[in-house]
Specification:
mainly alpha, two-stranded antiparallel sheet, about 5% strand
């Protein structure tokens, strides 16, 4: 499987955004039309509340959020176990 650099992908996205078709880009540079279409979805910049985001940015934030939620749940369980341990220690 061929791996393309992020810079290459972004350059194809820019060319598409300037009016080149997926078919043209695929024929000239090699990646499939579907790959280029996916890269356009991933790397196109959207502005929200004055901030610029790509889908790649959103995906990274979602992954980080998921990781943080998991860590928070572990900390909550640890706090419950510690409080039970300390209660038993004081009660004895």
């Amino acid at each position: 499987m061929i791996r393309y650099s992020p810079e290459f992908k972004q350059s194809l996205v820019e060319m598409h955004n300037q009016g080149r078709s997926y078919t043209e880009l695929s024929a000239e540079y090699g990646p499939s039309v579907d790959s280029i279409r996916n890269w356009v979805k991933l790397y196109t910049v959207h502005e929200v509340d004055g901030e610029k985001w790509t889908q790649a940015d959103v995906n990274a934030l979602q992954n980080e959020n998921s990781q943080l939620r998991e860590e928070l749940e572990i900390l909550k369980r640890s706090a419950v176990l510690l409080s039970k341990y300390n209660y038993r220690k004081i009660a004895s």
